[in-house]
Design a protein that fits this description.
- The chain is α/β, with parallel strands linked by helices and about 240 residues long.
- The protein has a single domain (about 5-230), classed as Rossmann fold (3-Layer(aba) Sandwich).
- Helix content is about 45%, strand content about 20%.
- The chain has seven helices and nine strands.
- It has helices at about 1-40, 55-65, 80-90, 100-115, 145-150, 175-180, 200-210, and strands at about 70-75, 95-100, 120-125, 130, 135-140, 155-160, 185-195, 215-220, 225-230.
- The strands form two sheets. A seven-stranded mixed beta sheet has the order 3-2-1-6-7-9-8, with helices on both faces.
Length: about 240
């Protein structure tokens, strides 16, 4: 019995040390990312529990700049939108961001205008509406609005999915790829936030099968999953 107790205690200690190590690594990477992002854009919003981690935002910014993404589509506007907009402007590209909350959309729009980035960003109010998949119904951004905004534009180089909230329905973010995949460029990337959640992990498994690409899950500091098609530089 004593030997069993010692084994259990040792196992718990190893797990605790591992968790502490991961948390320290996460804090270190986010601190470095926040320092870099501070040079790119002065922070206008508080970092809240709903905000993307700085290292996640930096992953998106790096992909835009290093892999030359000119047309970016975002599902769910927030603080990350400001940094993505800045990176897109440096590339001479364009960002279309779909947001279901009109008041929040207006709030982000004001920040975009204050930064002088309005000419390269389109913040679109798209209310949550029923979307029917092959097996179930979802609540997602109004498909007609999304297709109208993307229909006549250039192909999408990068799709960033950080909405809607996972609480609105099961696999709430899944429709992003089925709806937008026909607008993707031949060389593209898809980034999904909150990959630490089981439903998001299931979503990227489905996306990987539908797009025939591999998604890489970063469960630690970044908290994102990213899949890419065509040649690219790792970020």
């Amino acid at each position: 019995m004593k030997a069993l107790i010692r084994q259990v205690v040792a196992k718990l200690m190893r797990e605790s040390i591992g968790e502490i190590t991961c948390e320290l690594q996460r804090m270190q990477e986010n601190s470095k990312a926040l320092d870099y992002l501070g040079r790119l854009l002065r922070p206008l919003e508080p970092w809240t529990g709903w905000t993307m981690h700085p290292s996640a935002i930096l992953t998106i910014v790096n992909d835009i700049l290093i892999n030359e993404r000119s047309m970016v589509v975002e599902c769910g506007a927030g603080l990350s939108t400001l940094y993505v907009a800045k990176a897109v402007s440096m590339r001479g590209g364009r960002l279309i961001s779909f947001e279901s909350d009109p008041a929040w959309r207006e709030h982000i729009h004001e920040q975009i205008e204050e930064l002088g980035l309005g000419s390269c960003v389109e913040l679109v109010h798209a209310e949550l509406s029923e979307w029917r998949g092959q097996e179930r119904k979802y609540l997602w951004y109004n498909e007609q609005v999304v297709r109208e905004r993307l229909g006549d534009g250039p192909p999408v180089d990068l799709l960033v999915v950080d909405g809607p909230s996972g609480s609105v329905c099961y696999h709430a973010r899944y429709p992003a790829v089925p709806v937008i995949r026909s607008y993707l460029n031949n060389r593209y990337a898809v980034i999904l936030h909150d990959i630490g959640r089981r439903q998001e992990q299931e979503i990227v498994e489905l996306w990987g099968q539908e797009l025939s690409i591999e998604f890489i899950n970063d469960y630690n500091a970044r908290g994102v999953s990213y899949g890419r098609n065509g040649c690219y530089y790792e970020v």
